[in-house]
Amino acid sequence: MHKNRGEWSNHLGFILAAAGSAVGLGNIWKFPGKLGANGGGLFLLIYIVVVAVIGLSIMLAELAIGRATQKNAVGAFRKLNKKWMFAVVIGMITLFVILSYYSIVGGWIMKYIAVYFGGAHFSGAATQYQDFFTGFITDSIEPILWGLLFLGLCIFIILKGVAEGIEKISKVLMPALFLLLIATAIRSVTLPGAMEGVRFMLHIDFSAFHTDMLVAAVGQAFFSLSVGMGILITYGSYVGKKENLMKSAVWI
Length: 252
Prior knowledge:
By secondary structure, this protein is an all-alpha fold. It has 12 helices and no strands.
């Protein structure tokens, strides 16, 4: 371990932090739409296979590269093989684009938290929610300010370091997210027509297979696992030498 370089304080902290980098809009927002547009159960099956075979392998490789070099993605490939620096550059550009809209969506969430804690009340009519959201996002200033506030909060957490910043906040936010997802799932299956959706999600029709479905599954797996962008290389660079990377990758 390099001198003065931080390290995850424990196994659980690393798992939650790494899972936090993977679980996001790609899983919660994008995945249901992909599944619905690509045949339901068959897409889900292909996705699981891709994650287990390809995604897990790449995740393990990235973590291993990070731990071996003790550097971020740019430093790691500069040390290992500069011929692949173009791939790192592509990954950095991708991360910049993702961060640009994640910051805006994060700003939306902070705005809604402030509104609800401020005692705002809605009648429940769908049009009222839609009108509020449309009015907010079409404002020329407010969404940017909330996005900058969210970005500033992220910078503050990162500056605290891996153990005192990212790991500590992940130990709070990730369990909270899991509880919210469980509550959302329970609520969803109690809504009218829910069982029809569940049957569609679990029904596998092999005759519906097409190559676009495979491409969509691979793309979704890469995006939802945060692989191929250098994130896990950087996270892996803070992993201790005694950490079982294979076990960690499976848990993530």
